[in-house]
Structures are given as C-alpha cells and as structure tokens.
Amino acid sequence: MSHESLPLRIPVTHVTPAAPEPRWRPKAFEGEVVPFRATVFREGHDAVGAMLVLTSPTGEETRHRMRPLAPGTDRWEARVRLDVVGLWRFRITGFGDEIATWRHDAALKIDAGVDVELMYEIGALLLDRAVAEKSRPAPIRKRLAEIAARLRDADASPEARRALVDDAVLDEFAARPLARLTTDSDERELLVERRRAGVGAWYEFFPRSEGAKRQKDGTWKSGTFRTAAKRLDGVAAMGFDVVYLPPIHPIGVTNRKGPNNTLAPGPSDPGSPWAIGGPLADGTPGGHDAVHPDLGTLADFRAFVRRATSLGLEVALDLALQASPDHPWVIDHPEWFTVLPDGTIRYAENPPKKYQDIYPVNFDDDPEGIFSEVLRIIRHWMKQGVRIFRVDNPHTKPLAFWERIIREVNDEAPDVVFLAEAFTRPAMLRSLAAAGFQQSYTYFTWRNTKGELEEFLTSLADETADYLRPNLFVNTPDILTEYLQFGGPAAFTVRATIAATAAPTWGVYAGFELFESVARPGAEEAIDNEKYEYKPRDFAAAEREGRSLALYLGILNGIRRDHPALGQLRNLHVHHTDDDSVIAYSKHLEKAFTGTGADDTIIVVANVDPHSVRETTVHLDLEALGLTPGEPFTVEDLVDGERWEWSTSNYVRLDAFTRPAHVLRVVRESEKPVRASRKRGASA
C-alpha cells in the first residue's frame, strides 16, 4: 500500500457545516456567506494544509484553500458565498504541505548557515515536481523551472538565492498546493434555500380588524380581505417583506371565547381564529381549506395575495393543526382526537391557559390519514399563491411528521418556507429546525438584559447557525413581555433596533408601532386581546400625532436593505462596554462578498435600560471590523446622519428618552469631512 493511500494519515475531523444528526442536512440561504471549517493536523512539525472541495447543484466543482484560525487549535476555515439554490456537496482535503514546510525550514537554516546547499536542492527538487504537473498553467510552470535552476546556481549571490525562498511566484502553491499524504473527509451535503427562507422583515395583522366597524346597535361588522388590502400600503411603506395572517378559516361556535379569553361571548364576538372549523355562508361546516365567510371568498383572498405581490410583499399563512368542536374532522375523523373516559374530547391546555374552543390533533391512531390531509391542505393554499406557512405550536406534534411533511412539500416546491412557532424546550426547538423548518421563533422576547442578549445572539450566530435560522419577532398576540409593558417607547425602540440588526429575519405584530403595552392583569399578553375581538387601529392618526414608531421601523428596514452585512446570520461579533446596560455588537462583511466593491461594517450600540441615561466606553475589536488596530476611523449614525471620529475605545452617551441606540456604519471614504465633537469619540 502506498503512502498516499493510507487512511487518515492527515486526520480531518470536526467538519462543519453540520446538523445535530447525520440524517439531517445543514442549510444556508441564497447569498449567505458560509464558513466551512475542519480540524486538520499531523504528527511532528511538518506543515499541513486544507482545501475545501465544493460541488454546486449544477455539478461545477470549485476548490478553496482554507486558512488557519487561532494558532494551536488546528482549525481551518474557508468562507464562500453560496448564490445557487439547491443541494451542494462538499468535502475537506487535508494534506502535507511540502512547499510550506520547505520555505519555513529553509528560512531558518539558510539564515543560520546550516545545510544551505541541501536546503536549496530540496527546494529545487520540489519545484521540479511541480513543473511536471501538467495541470498548472504553462507560464507558471516556466517561472517555477527558472526558480529551480537559480536555486541550484551556486555562483549566484547569497542574497539573490535567499530571496528566491520568498519569491511571490511561490504563492502559486496557495491555490494549487504541492500536496502529498492527502486525506479526504466524507462528502457532506448542504442545502441552500431561497433568500426569503433566511432574510426578511415580517409584519403580522388580523385581516378581520382592518376595516372592522362597530354598528349602531353595538355589534361589529368584520373587516374583509378587500378592506385588509388597504393596510398593505402602510406595511410596504415601512419596508416589510412578508405580511403574515393568523388563521383565516371559519371559526367554531361551540365553546367560542369572548373578550380576554372568557367563556361568555357576546352575539357579535368573532372568537379565536385558532379555533378552526365552523359554519360557512350556507350553514355547512368548513375547515382548513375554507375562508371565513366574513372575510370574503377564495377569489377575494387571491386578490389580496396579488395586491401584496404588487407591493413587493409575500403573504404568509398560519398553519394550525387543530380543530374547533365544529370542525368537519370531529364528525368525519373522531380517531384524530383524544376521547376521555367520560366520552368528551380533550381540549387544548397550556397551563394556566385553557382553550376549551380547540381540540388538539392526536397523531397516534391514524398518522397516515392525518399526513395525507395536511399535505392536501398545504397544496390547496399553495394553489392560492401562498409560499410561506407560519406553523402554530409545531412542538405539540411528532417531530417525524414535520420531517416528512416538509421534505415532501419541498421536494415538489423548494420555494415553500415553513416558520416554526416553537416556544418550547431547546431540544425540541433545535430539532424542529434541523428536521426541516426554514425559520424558527426563538427565546428572543425573553432575552432583555445585556448579558442575556450577548449570550443569546452569539449562540444564534455560531452554535446553531448551520441549521437554525432565527426569526426575531419583537411581540406576538400571545407575548407582551414585562420589558415592553413597563419600558415605554424606549423599550420598543431598543427591541426593534436589536431585532432588525442582529439577525437577517425579524418580525412585528401590529400594534407594536403604536407602543401598545397594557397587559391583561397577571399575564404577559395584551389586554383586550385581538385573538378574541376586533381591534381596528388608526395608524395614520397615530403617525400625525407623533404616537407611532412606524417611521423608525421604516428606517430600520431601509438600513437592512442598504447594508449587506445585515443580511448575514453568522457574522455577529460582540464588543465590550464598561456599562452593564449597554450592549455593542457589529456585523462586518468583506468587499469580496458585498457586491458593492467595498467592505460593509455596521456597529450597533444600545442602552437596554429603558429608564435611564447611560454614559460608557465602548471597546472595539478593530480586526473584527476589518480595520487596523489603533487607527482612527469615521462612523455615521444611519438614523440621523451624525458622524464622529472613533478608534479602539469610544465614549458613548445613550439617553433612553431621546436616543437609546446607535446604528452606525463605518465610513470608508476618508476624504469626507467629519463633524467636530466636544469630546474625542463622543457620540452624543
């Protein structure tokens, strides 16, 4: 057996991207810059190298020389922007780097006067081998042959021969190394999905509330798809990409909920949209494939989708696998539910919350029947123009079901995106993402202190980024945290700033921009919750009267569009500040990946204490920003255009009541003037 065929002579281990289990595939989104990494090492002191061999979905193979990471770790990395949707394949090749070994040894020995002629001859022999490799370009081979001859020229000056060791033409071996003792890792798969699977700004609203009117007799008239379509202009004006609708299906009458989750609904109370299944216009029961008659018809829904599309918005539809007592499933498929010993069907609970109007689906007795029905429902809505589904409580359904249903749908329609509303234990949340969900709600709403955010955001950008894409919703109909209840406008501003800049996908539920903060006593959800009643809002009046965050949300979404660094997940870097309530992080993208010909660097500094003024020093890792340590540079606040001269350590003052956060870009155009400040580095 030859040396070259010996297994694991150059060990290649801990290859990433990787999913938690071999049966799952790591994933990326179109345009994502993915770090490919591996541990590569060998015995002794000879140099090793690593090469990423990448095969695109079209079959094109490219090779990328990997660079060493922290000294002593034996970790290697190559970062590649993946712009083709589909299944990629990759492997890592580890090899003995003979040229690097020779250059290192030659520099030491020749300078010390030890084995000088021997070192020159070793180098010449290596170059002879390289010249014989027909895969190298002819001009390079000719130049290498010349260097080999000059290395053997004992009559040349010592200085001239020594300079050959460092000749720039030897950099040819970075791209095409002279390798032996190679070891290939197993070939891996990486699924690249469309860009909206990883990048987007979501806005949620209830179509029944848009255009709803209270009539003279005190009853309500529901909004419709036609009236809701009028709200789309405002959503688009704020720069959102996705409009998400809660369930639009008929709502059950049995055990219908009234205001604030009571069991005493009035005659015009609409009930919870998640209690799916109820009477259609002709009195017959309708389910997941129907629209609520108050909203209109399927044709009206398709018109709503077309209007959204014309404004650059995609429509996301709620997929809630549950039923009201009035759903056709209850009569046609009683085996899909849990029947208790007293003959009643178990309703949903999430203690202390009770949902008497909802029956959860039991997957134990007829999993194939349920699978077929859900697949039918998804395909039905796909035909109506829906390509994004927000899945309600996926953690209460079998993981294997989701793995199968998502694979089946994406095999026939790779552009369909599923968002998991998985506010559950970490093992299930992460496994749902690994099993196929393109996006996931996270614990973001409950991470509010500096320490919590630093740990949480770093984990999203590093630990789970190979398979979990976070959607940082700032609020939901179910979640109004104490931070928002008692933090005032500053809390809303800070949470939006962090959500919009820390991850490529974020979301807002309507009312957030109006600073809605009054909770039901003892709960973390809004009082007079829109889940149980109509809630029309006068957004235009709020903007006129200065009671709206809409303009700021639009600015944030505009910044996201203009700065490709914010469209990446894995590039977040936390920086140190001297104040326990001021967080600082950056997102940097080199010009090789921006598409603009210039580096893009964003620095976010936020005061997470919504009740105070904070003054502190921000200490930046300039290398993480693509800057030279110690040199000054200019930053510009992208919200108001102010500029300051910064360096490694910078004074910052953040007033929760006027300016609780900075979104700064590093200005690369040094010729532009900088506004003088009273204190070096001062930001306010």
From TrEMBL:
Family to which the UniProt record says this protein belongs: Belongs to the glycosyl hydrolase 13 family. GlgE subfamily.
Matches recorded under PANTHER family: ALPHA-1,4-GLUCAN:MALTOSE-1-PHOSPHATE MALTOSYLTRANSFERASE, GLYCOSYL HYDROLASE FAMILY 13 CATALYTIC DOMAIN-CONTAINING PROTEIN
UniProt-recorded name of the protein: Alpha-1,4-glucan:maltose-1-phosphate maltosyltransferase
Oligomeric form and interacting partners: Homodimer.
Binding positions for alpha-maltose 1-phosphate per the UniProt entry: K257, Q322, D357, N393, K531, Y532
Residue ranges constituting the Glycosyl hydrolase family 13 catalytic domain according to the UniProt record: 200-541
Annotated catalytic residues: D392 (nucleophile), E421 (proton donor)
Enzyme type, top EC level: transferase
GO BP term, pick one: alpha-glucan biosynthetic process
Enzyme Commission (EC) number: 2.4.99.16
Gene Ontology MF annotations: hexosyltransferase activity; hydrolase activity, hydrolyzing O-glycosyl compounds
Region (Disordered): 256-287
A Pfam short name: GLGE_C
InterPro entries (UniProt xref): GH (IPR017853), GH13_cat_dom (IPR006047), GlgE (IPR026585), GLGE_C (IPR049171), GlgE_dom_N/S (IPR021828), Glyco_hydro_b (IPR013780), Ig-like_fold (IPR013783)
Purpose of the protein: Maltosyltransferase that uses maltose 1-phosphate (M1P) as the sugar donor to elongate linear or branched alpha-(1->4)-glucans. Is involved in a branched alpha-glucan biosynthetic pathway from trehalose, together with TreS, Mak and GlgB.
Record site: Transition state stabilizer: D478
Catalytic reaction equation(s): alpha-maltose 1-phosphate + [(1->4)-alpha-D-glucosyl](n) = [(1->4)-alpha-D-glucosyl](n+2) + phosphate
Keyword set, alphabetical order: Carbohydrate metabolism, Glycosyltransferase, Transferase
HAMAP family named in the record: GlgE
Species of origin: Agromyces protaetiae
